[in-house]
Design a protein that fits this description.
- The chain has 334 residues and is α+β, with helices and mostly antiparallel strands.
- The protein has a single domain, classed as Endonuclease/exonuclease/phosphatase (Deoxyribonuclease I, Chain A).
- 28% of the residues lie in helices and 24% in strands.
- The chain has helices spanning 35-49, 68-78, 176-206, 227-230, 234-239, 249-256, 288-293, 307-310, 313-322; strands at residues 2-7, 53-59, 85-88, 97-102, 107-111, 126-128, 137-139, 146-152, 157-164, 211-216, 246-247, 266-270, 275-279, 282-287, 297-300, 328-331.
- Strands 3-4-2-1-16-15 form a 6-stranded mixed beta sheet, with helices on one face. A 6-stranded mixed beta sheet has the order 5-8-9-10-14-11.
Amino acid sequence: MRIATYNVEWFDSLFDNKGRLMLDDRWSSRRDITRVQQAEALGIVFTAMDADAIMVIEAPDTSSRRSTTRALTHFAEAFDLRTTAVVTGFANDTQQEIALLYDPAVLSVRHDPQSSEAAPRFDAAFEIDLDIDATMDRVQFSKPPLELAVTTAAGKTLRLIGAHLKSKAPHGARSRTEIMRFSIANRRKQLAQAIWLRRRIETHLAAGESLMLLGDLNDGPGLDEFEHLFGRSSVEIILGDGGPHLYDPHAEEALARRIGAQPSTARFYIDKQKRYLSALLDYIMVSDDLRVHNAPLWRIWHPFDDPRCWKIPELRDALLTASDHFPVTVDLDL
């Protein structure tokens, strides 16, 4: 079985209010790419992945006029994908939802949000002392993680959590002082979200449940100059450095080698520097039982790093056109 996570930049901009793809030559929200170019590129990528389930990060919007489920269903129909079923969780106000697109012949899936004293439901608030001032701060997810109960056709049960953590970028800052203040505040909030997620993870692992966490964590070891102030990245917190552990080979590689070449799942153009920045932001973390007993094999569909993607020009170009992130997949015996 193949399970994927894929952050699709401005997926929502490709659909009208009825969830229909707008296959025209008007500009998409991606730089110098039309809507038909991005949509067709996504069709190529999703077809090539042929995943049984895809955790779509930045999925089309759900609001009073728009529907994530309607849009993704039309997308699957347009490109004759077998992943025709959609499950969503708590909608948000960012026009970037989290949704699972999956093959209903292979998986049964339901939204199953959890709550405990240590970790409230992800649409609630989490209280934590962010700045060590003996005052509890209330933290909320702008994009509440998607918690799923999954059963395979063979009867295997597992938990999936789709996550998109807060960006650390100092959006709105106008001076160097503001950049510093916003960056530190955003990192504090992101680490609080990671702690919240980790507490939920520990509950599932303590109950002996198989678990996968998928998505864009907007973080990784060594990605910014503020990391030394806090000691650990969000990725390290979520993986767990004591007690039950989650595993992702790309995260482990990055943690073990802070200097030198590292895996990357995203590629952003830095206009001021006239160059691209690569980063490891997208992960599929699995519990130890899945790692030991289900022979997982990970793959980043990076057009420059993966020879199989590079050798197929149509796929290589589609990956660059479709999004600023690349899919990550894991193949497991489920």
